Amino acid sequence: MKTIDLHEADTEFSRLVDEAAGGEPLVIARDGKPVVKVVPLDAPAPFVKRRRGFLKGQISVPDDFDTMGQEEIIAMFEGEDE
Q1: What is the average pLDDT across 40-66?
Q2: Distance, CA of 44 to CA of 36 (rounded, Å)
Q3: What is the CA radius of gyration of the chain?
Q4: What are the φ/ψ torsions at residue 11 (nearest 5 degrees)?
Q5: Which is an annotated Pfam family here (predicted)?
Q6: Residue 81's pLDDT band (boundaries 50, 70, 90)?
């Protein structure tokens, strides 16, 4: 992916937009530091790495999780007092 200085992008904006729309994304930099990325609207979303397992060993799910509070919930729906 090519990087364009902000001043050059300002003077050649129309051409750069055409290139990006044609599938050639680019980065616009200010003082050598990347500021924005120009991509076509139909470009696929960037892959987001998921952090699986980062809470391993720190939490636990009770064995009766799927039935916890079942009696109270049924009583609420049926309008019965506990």
Answers
A1: 85
A2: 17
A3: 27
A4: -80, -25
A5: PhdYeFM_antitox
A6: low
> Is the CB of residue 1 less than 8 Å from the CB of residue 29?
no
What is the domain partition of the chain in residue ranges? 2-38
Where does 2-38 sit in CATH, by number?
Answer: 3.40.1620.10
The answer to whether 19 touches 4, Cβ cutoff 8 Å, is no
Model-level pTM? 0.53
Reference 6, options 33, 43, 24, 42; nearest CA is 33
CA 38 from chain center: how many Å?
A: 17
Strands (E), the chain: 2-5, 26-30, 33-38
Dihedrals φ, ψ of 4, to 5°? -120, 135
Q: What confidence tier does 4 reach under pLDDT thresholds 50, 70, 90?
A: very high
Label residue 29 exposed, middle or buried (CB < 10 Å: 0-12, 13-18, 19+). middle
